Amino acid sequence: MREDERREVSKIFNALGNDTRVRILLLVSKTKRPLHIKAIATALNMDYAALYRHVKVLQRTGLLEVYEVGRSRVLSLKKKELIEKLIEIATKIMQ
Fold first, then answer.
1. Cα separation of 91 and 29, whole Å?
2. Three-class SS string for the chain?
3. Interacting residues of 95 by C-beta distance below 8 A, sequence separation 6+
4. How many Cα atoms within 13 Å fall on the side-chain side of residue 54?
5. Relative to the CA of 19, which of 10, 61, 68, 90 has its CA 20 to 30 Å away?
6. What φ, ψ does residue 2 adopt, rounded to 5°?
7. Cα-based torsion angle of the residue sequence 69, 83, 87, 40 in order, rounded to the nearest 10 degrees
8. pLDDT under 50 in the chain at which residues?
9. Contact of 24 with 55, CB cutoff 8 Å
10. Within the chain, what is the greatest distance between any pair of CA atoms?
11. Angle at Cα 43 formed by Cα 40 and Cα 49, nearest 5°?
């Protein structure tokens, strides 16, 4: 593995190493349509600004996409099957 690839992998694992970011991914993965950030903030009982900082980390790692819809932002998984597989693998590791 090249050094630049190793750094990118490390960024992804770092992003997934935070409970709030995993909760965001789980919420978005359970829907068929993109979710509004405000709806996710409400579901997680979080301040919009705090949630958005976590969203930016997930977006930079390529796990989430943020779309502007009018004046609001919606989220969708960028690689849904891969994220679901990662969650499945992590669950198996815990067993």
1. 15
2. CCHHHHHHHHHHHHHHCCHHHHHHHHHHHCCCCCEEHHHHHHHCCCCHHHHHHHHHHHHHCCCEEEEEECCEEEEEECCHHHHHHHHHHHHHHHC
3. none
4. 20
5. 68
6. -70, 160
7. -10
8. none
9. yes
10. 44
11. 50
What does the pLDDT read at residue 53?
Answer: 96
Could you tell me if 62 and 25 are in contact, meaning their C-beta atoms sit under 8 angstroms apart? no
pTM of the model: 0.87
Phi and psi at 48, nearest 5°, equal -55, -45
Residue-range domains of the chain with CATH: 3-94 (1.10.10.10)
Nearest to 12 by CA among 50, 63, 77: 63
CA pair distance 86, 83, nearest whole angstrom: 5
